[in-house]
Please model this.
Amino acid sequence: MPITEVTIIRRCAHCRYEIGTMTVKKDNMRLMATEPVWCESCGAEAPEMRDVAERETTIESEQASYPGNPPVADVSAAEFRRRRSAGIDV
Ligand SMILES: [Zn+2]
Model:
């Protein structure tokens, strides 16, 4: 599954108060908002600014969809053997 959706964080452009998040298709991603939004922190309408949220969860789910051995398990198994051979209790 290719990454097709991104999470956008909507913030008040005045105080960076997080108004909310939205998930959009990457193809339709628009970081420029035209309508002002209500900011609770300012107590007024304010221009909206948008940031792309951290994509860790998206990347994680992409890796999980791959068949075969998870790379993390291989690393920990190698580390386990390394510690055993070094005489470290595991
Ligand atoms: Zn604000």
Summary: Residues 12, 14-15, 17, 39, 41-42, 46 surround zinc ion (CB under 6 Å). The chain has one domain: 5-85. Residues 5-85 form one domain.
